[in-house]
Design brief:
This protein is an alpha/beta fold and 434 residues long. It contains 12 helices and 15 strands. Helix content is 37%, strand content 15%. Helix 5 runs parallel beside helix 6, helix 5 (125-137) crosses helix 9 and helix 10 crosses helix 12. The structure holds 4'-deoxy-4'-aminopyridoxal-5'-phosphate and pyridoxal-5'-phosphate. Residues 73-426 form the Aminotransferase class I/classII large domain.
Length: 434
């Protein structure tokens, strides 16, 4: 196969909103970061760092399940309690860059910064990264492409920006390239750079174990979608929090792995593999765009908790890539068993009442109820009486008030016995409603 050639250097400025383009580095943040890279002999009267000797916490010792301990001695604890760089603590960013290179081998890793070299920053969960990426790229009135049903957190971040969300049809293998082509045929690819063009500039998708559909995109589809993005000069936002929850190996090649132009912004999350409450995620993308996200972080949260980052970083460094991937294997094994348990309970109780596809990643089963046109009332009003809770599908639709026959069931938290009992209750609920 002939590898695609780069199309020349991307003009990232054309994608930025006025707000994002107007962001300037905070002078004090720059001094703080400079100070952290300097030798201890530097006497700094700059910055506004408080004196950690006045802080009440002294040291910490965190037991890890495998018998290891993550220890913060007094010096490390002072660092954990102090301000740190807005892009993330350097040793964590370096570890993650190495992991991205190992997993995705992005062509952009070897580019110059202006050419869109791969860069990364730490975010307070991938939700923060997504929200900041959308605010960087989406103007009121812009056409934005996505495959709905989609993650309600994405809709919550995008809809208030006043954009026009265009749905691209999808099935159990994710976004359908022919449907994307059809949507894009409204615009002439040779005119997308003309002033006033309404052609979409961004496409958002969840490539693995989609929330809520459980759908995973095939590599062939990704290649076709990437080629269409090149033709229309679009950026692709690859929101992949279930990447590490793919049940079958080898894992599917990512958009990032095929990014010869520097048009992929990828969000990763530790929420499903290390902790959801610690709030840690990553934005990976072309440096000129990651820089804009970091400027936004400087002006909002300043940085993800230093304590969280140091705790995670120490664990990752002690594990190495191999130990990390061994941990992932154990997580996968758990979720795969849970999925199988949910599928067998669905077969047992819901066979004649609902339809579904087996998800090959993630933690959701998306079910279409055969004889219920809208699950909203069934779930929000009647399900609680029967003591079973699911998410009505409507919340994942662009227009949440449209009738929707789907429900989302998560197999992450309940035991197989509870899942079985829940589906028994759901089957009774549906039969009562008929
Ligand atoms: N407001 C003022 C006036 C400040 O001086 C600072 C910290 N330098 C902040 C807000 C930000 O504080 P925090 O670290 O709690 O985000
Ligand atoms: N993106 C998708 C598709 C999700 O399902 C979720 C969490 O449910 C997130 C992003 C947010 O993840 P995080 O906890 O890293 O902010």
């Amino acid at each position: 196969m002939v590898e695609p050639q780069r199309k020349g250097v991307m003009n990232y400025a054309r994608f930025l909103t006025a707000v994002s383009a107007a962001r300037k580095p905070s002078p004090i943040r720059m001094l703080t970061e400079l100070q952290q890279r300097s030798p201890p002999s530097l006497i700094s009267l700059a910055g506004g760092s408080p004196n950690p000797n006045t802080f009440p916490f002294l040291s910490a010792s965190i037991q890890v399940k495998n018998g290891q301990t993550v220890t913060f001695d007094e010096l490390t604890m002072k660092r954990a309690l102090q301000y740190s760089a807005s892009s993330g603590i350097p040793e964590l960013v370096t570890w993650m860059k190495n992991l991205q290179k190992k997993l995705h081998n992005p062509p952009t890793a070897s580019y110059s910064p202006e050419q869109g070299q791969m860069d990364m920053c730490v975010t307070t969960g991938s939700q923060e990264g997504l929200c900041k990426v959308f605010e960087m790229l989406v103007n009121p009135g812009d056409n934005v492409l996505l495959d709905a049903p989609t993650y309600s957190g994405t809709l919550a971040a995008l809809q208030p920006l006043g954009c026009n969300l265009i749905n691209v049809s999808s099935d159990q293998h994710g976004m359908i390239p022919a449907a994307l082509k059809e949507v894009l045929s409204r615009w002439d690819p040779s005119e997308v750079h003309k002033p006033g063009s309404t052609a979409p500039k961004i496409l958002y998708t969840i490539p693995n174990g989609g929330n809520p559909t459980g759908a995973s995109m095939t590599v062939e589809r990704k290649k076709e979608v990437y080629e269409l993005a090149r033709l229309y000069d679009m950026l692709i936002i690859e929101d992949d929090p279930y990447y590490f929850l793919q049940f079958e190996k080898p894992w599917a090649p990512t958009f990032l792995s095929m990014d010869v132009d520097g048009r992929i912004i990828r969000t990763d999350s530790f929420s499903k593999i290390l902790s959801s409450g610690l709030r840690i995620g990553f934005v990976t993308g072309p440096k000129p765009l990651v820089d804009r996200v970091v400027l936004h972080i400087q002006a909002s949260t300043m940085h993800t908790s230093s304590f969280t980052q140091l705790m995670v970083s120490q664990l990752l460094h002690s594990w190495g890539q191999e130990g990390f991937l061994q941990h992932i294997d154990r997580v996968i094994e758990f979720y795969k068993k849970q999925r199988d348990a949910m599928l067998s309970s669905a077969d047992k109780w819901l066979k004649d009442l609902a339809e579904w596809h087996s998800p090959s990643a993630g933690m959701f089963l998306w079910m279409k109820l055969r004889d219920i046109a809208d699950t909203q009332q069934l779930i929000m009003e009647k399900a609680l009486e029967k003591e079973v809770l699911l998410v009505p599908g409507g919340v994942f639709m662009i227009n949440s008030s449209d009738p929707c026959p789907y429900v989302r069931a998560a197999f992450s938290l309940s035991t197989p016995e509870q899942i079985d009992e829940a589906f028994k209750r759901l089957s009774l609920l549906i039969k009562d409603a008929l």
